[in-house]
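Retro notes - structure team

What went well: the batch runner handled both jobs without manual restarts.
What didn't: labels got mixed up in the shared folder, which is why I'm recording both outputs here explicitly, each with its sequence directly above its tokens.

Job 1
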Amino acid sequence: MEVGETVRMKGYITQFHFIAGKGAARLESLLGYKAGRLAGGWALLDLCKLPRPADFEFRGYSYLSGGIIEGHKDENKGGKTAEIRLKDGIFDVAALKESLIKKTFCLSGAKRLVKIVPKDPPSGNKDYPPGSGVPQWELMKKLPFKVCAVMLPDGKKWDKKG
């Protein structure tokens, strides 16, 4: 990925202010990547278009691997995600999503929606232990992102644009 490039991706997103200024090791801990997962480098992507309600699902906080309570454990694979638990709790998930889009989601500033993408591919489910608890949502369809920064493996050099 190159700074300034637009890429279409799905997967987990959070808000920038939860991860701003954090080094690779702290990001791994916050987001739920195993130690060393970002050592090969990573990219910070800014979402370019707000998702619609059908584009994302609630996943709670990063301590819920896959949005599932103790989802990092093999015996809990296939468990109920945060979104399913909301539906089971008789919440109007569509209304919650509409409210979130209007009141919380944004594309600029400290609360903008972002994605961290490790350079190296995952090696398996054990790459995703519970994180420290930042809000997360999962994009279920690919949306456009702008690559705004790339951290190189040496951990020192940022390649930034604007």
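Job 2
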Amino acid sequence: MNNTSPFSFLASIVNRFQPPAWAVDEGQQRLVLFLNHVLMQEKQAQDRLLRQKGQVVHVRWGVFAIDLIVTPAGLVDRAPPGAKPDLLLSVATESPLVIMQSVMAGKPPPSRLKAMCSWRLRSDGWPKICAGMQKKIYPA
């Protein structure tokens, strides 16, 4: 008896699909606009980011990745190419279908964030943010 999913063929196509550069560029720009819209609604979050101006965050989810830089206004923008990230965030759950199914069921998505801070950030606020995220993401 064959136990493979009839949709495994579709998954292999999606994994090989590479969107054109202009689509990636436009998608990242839309993501930045969305993040800034959310940040502008939360003054406290914007103030906390303001202390990290100039810092670069590399965010990765599966094959999608973006480098964001914190602006002097406490918002985010795309970092210039080749910028060295100060913080790495990686979402472990790669399937958007799994995430959507859990959200539609009213449960939190089964994803975990991994945060790694570089050594040179020990003197500023990122390690505190990382420690706080670790507590929220990996509660004891």
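One thing worth noting from job 2: Residues 99 and 105 are 10 Å apart (CA to CA).
We'll revisit the folder naming next retro.
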